[in-house]
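Exercise 7.
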Amino acid sequence: MKKKLLTLIAGGIMAAAMSFTAFAGGWQQDQTGWWYQNDDGTYLTGGWNWVDGKCYYFTAEGYCLTGTTTPDGYTVDASGAWIVDGVVQTQGTSGAVSDAGSGQAAGEAYTVNGLTFTPPAGFYKDDDVSDSSSLYFYNDNLDGVIGVMSEDIPEAAQYGTLLEMYSETILDAAMNSVGTPIAKGVKQFPTGTWYCYLYDAATEFDIPGQVYAYGRISGARVQMIMLIGNIGIAPDDVLMNYLR
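Solution. The predicted structure, written as tokens, is:
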């Protein structure tokens, strides 16, 4: 899967490089409400996202919920920021971020080409399949896998960060070629914006459970996180905070 993805992404990079368009990120408002546009022209959707140190809930259409209770039972104030007992929760001090680190293994943090990942307790690095651009971690029962990939694409080097503007289109094409996602979203983590794809693993890959794939293009580098099978910990907002 890794080689196929890299080939597809590299092809998309070359096609997209022919016509760059500039976008301005930040909060935007229309007659329906507030939404947040990323620097590459995409917008945040589908649940909780950190923005400027505060946590906001965005609908599937991309609008920020304000002054209400979110579908998962949390409270947001009139600006949309998550609050507990009337106090705005901030990144680095809130319960969500502290909980995200509570299951970390006390062992080594692994770095691969610009990404540092500390595997959660019960996951161990597989030296046989890991290499200079990817790390793979298996759990005790061998029914859960975490893959961390960060690889340079030589074809993209001449275009620098401009390619990030087209990253969603390129990644969509690559991920749809690998399999048909049953859901897709855009998430904001401490490491930045990631595009998230959810697959039914039994249907697409003939393995039990689900596959979560997170991808982005950062300069001339493609970075992907794959969560396969029984991870035993909630993905995205929790597990992605093990990444630096």
